[in-house]
Amino acid sequence: MCSFPTRCVTFFGVVLLVAVAASAQESEQEVLVDRVYHSGYSFAVDVKFSEIGGDFANFVGFRGGWLINHRFLIGVAGYGKTTGIDHSQMGYGGLTLESFLFPERRWNVSIAGLIGGGAISWDWSNPFFVGEPEAKLNLNLSKRWRLSFGGGYRFVGGAPGPDDRLSGFVGDVAIRFGSF
Q1: What is the CATH number for 82?
Q2: Does the N terminus or the C terminus of the chain have fewer Cβ atoms within 10 A?
Q3: What is the pTM of this model?
Q4: Structure confidence by residue, pLDDT tens digits, 8-50
Q5: Which residue range is the domain that position 146 belongs to?
């Protein structure tokens, strides 16, 4: 007669043989996403034009990120004020997201947004929250270079004094380098 351990070994052996036979069959695996995506990068030098408290303000910055399938960018950005309005310093930055419409065309459009924080003062002791949605018109100069023109609005919250003096419309010109 067979003992209990022999039955267990036989049972698991049969299960193992069935599993090996089932895995040896050629079949298409079902997956949630069945596409190959292009992965690239993009870096840009930005010049922004805006107002602070009714006076002209110029910001220079940098943004860079990971470009997914030529259509979606996730990255970081940072800007610093270069004009001497009221002798204060100001900078802001954070997470940036951008979605490109028709990126293969010479002229294309993108919708971008930045969400993050910043500070204003002589000693950077007055932090604030910033959100900056933008629409951009992009010119594909070559496979690696783009020129962008954009406009949007900078929303500032939690700044010292009235937040509306730091909030305002923003114009943007950028030169981009990347694997588009």
Answers
A1: 2.40.160.20
A2: N
A3: 0.76
A4: 567 667 665 665 555 555 556 676 666 777 889 999 999 999 9
A5: 39-178
